[in-house]
Each structure stands twice: as C-alpha cells, then as structure tokens.
Amino acid sequence: MSEEDAVNLVDMGLTLLQARVYLGLLRLGTTRAPRLASIVGVVRPEIYRILRELSARGLVHRSLTSPSTYMAASPNVAVPLLAQQIRERLASFELKSNALMKSLTSITPEHSGVMDHRITLLEAFDRANQEFKQMVTEAEDEYVGITGRDALNQLSNDDLVRPIISASRRKVKVRIITEIDRDNAKVAEQLSRHVELRTSQNILFYIDIVDRKKMLFGPAYLQSDQAIKRRELDLLTTDPRFIAGMHAMFERIWETCPKYAKRRR
Q: Can you give the pLDDT at residue 232?
C-alpha cells in the first residue's frame, strides 16, 4: 500500500491506522477481520474497533453473514464522502466560531481600550486570493506588495491583475517588488504600464499592505499551491504595529531594488 495515499487520507480526516486499514481492505477486497489484522499489523480487538469507526463513516461495508466479512467502499464513493464530511465540519466550526465570538464579545468591557486587531489564518488557496482581491478593490490611498516569481505569473491566471490596475486608475499609489523572468515577463510588462515595479531575487515570502490598515503575508507562492488549492501559512491582520513594521521593511527593500526595465523587442 502507498504511504503517500495513507498520508493523503489522514489529511482528509482519518487517523493513520484508519487510513492503513482502509487501504489494506481496498487491496484485499472482501475479507474477514483476522486476515485484515494480520496484513495491517494490528491486534484483533483493535482491528474490530477501527472497522466499526470506518463503517460508521460509510467507508467500510460489513456483511450480514456469519462469520462477518468486510469490504472497503469504492474510492469513487469514499473520497467524495470524506470531502463532504470535511465541508460539514468546517461549516459547523464556522457556526461555533461566530457564536463564540459573540459570547466572548458580550463579556468584554465596552471601554477597555483594547482594539480588535486579529491575525487570521487562511489555509485555503482561494481564500487568500479572495481576501487579496477585496483588499485591493477597497484600497483608497496605497497598495504595496512583495511577491515571488510564481505568484506574479499566477496573478493573470487568477484574474488578480485587473483589480490592481483598477486601483491604479483610481489614483491609488501602487508599488510592487517582484522577481521577473521569461515566464512572467508578459504580466510584468502589463503591470508596469500602470504601477511602479522594482525587481529582486530569491524572494521567499510575500506581503500585501493596503492603506497601512490591512495586510496579507506568508511564504512565497509556488505553482504546487495552485495545484493542490492549499497553503501552509497565509495570515491576514489589521494590527497597526505589525503593519507599520512590515511597511517600514518594504520601504527599506524598495530603496535598494532596481527599477523594472521592459524587455527590448
């Protein structure tokens, strides 16, 4: 059985033992629990417990014969089922988080002087893109950004060039530091007609700051992020001290970077 498949099943909500039992059963086809326990390498009481858990989630079917036999649900059924269970858990967490926020807010002194400047983790690739698009669309005075090579190329694919250009046309001051090569030169040339571009190399992180009030930041985007629609760490914050520090860092880097020069045709 593939260890990578087991890891992917764990990412979708199974424990490692559950993943290995499901994969072992998928390979064996219809079989009895003792044989499956021997193949997977767990004791019999443990295999029966795991089979009950997988059955409860619709991933294993148990026969009504005696002795009982077990069969794994088809991957065409199991994978969408796991994905649906994840969506249901996320929806449940969202409801609980909203209720918890209201509850905690209700016990916070109204005049405590503590401002709400949260740092929010954005785990989904599309969520970060949505936040970026909204930030730039709502920009009033300034947008500054540091972005890597792959992310610049991806701007066009994700329709994120348009809100940047639109912001510039609204007289928002737009400055971007990025890596430029043959693959993303077309996007760079398009942006350079509307915004200020400077170049750097080996960019390992990104930041997007709008009006010094809101900031996205995290590790540099890679093309693999788009493929799996998942990110390791993207953060959104409105903390003024954090943003002020990162904006000052941007200004220092900006001063040392050369201006972008268009390719000669």
A: 58
Return the SS3 of 48.
helix
Q: Are 221 and 157 in contact (CB under 8 A)?
A: no
SS3 sequence of 107-136: CCCCCCCCCCCCEEECCEHHHHHHHHHHHH
CATH of the domain at 60: 1.10.10.10
177 SS3 class: strand
Distance set, CA 246 to CA 113, 118, 242 (Å): 24, 16, 6
136, 241: one domain: yes
- Give the model's pLDDT for residue 115: 47
Q: Is residue 229 part of a domain?
A: yes
At 243, which CATH number? 3.30.870.10
Domain boundary among 50, 76, 102: 76
The DSSP bridge pattern shows strands 173-178 and 196-199 to be parallel
> What does the alpha-carbon distance between residue 169 and residue 163 come to, in Å, rounded to a whole number?
10
Domain span at residue 64 reads 3-76
pLDDT (tens digit per residue) in 166-190 = 999 999 999 999 999 888 889 999 9
Statement: residue 227 has pLDDT above 80: no
Instruction: Check residue 250 and give its pLDDT.
Output: 95
Residue environment code for 68-94, b if the CB has 16+ CB neighbours within 10 A, otherwise e: ebbebbeeeebeeebeeeeeeeeeeee
Do residues 244 and 178 both lie within one domain?
Answer: yes
Q: How confident is the model at residue 224 (pLDDT cuts 50, 70, 90)?
A: low
Same domain, 70 and 124: no
Does 42 map to a domain? yes
Q: Which amino acid, one-letter code, is at 185?
A: A
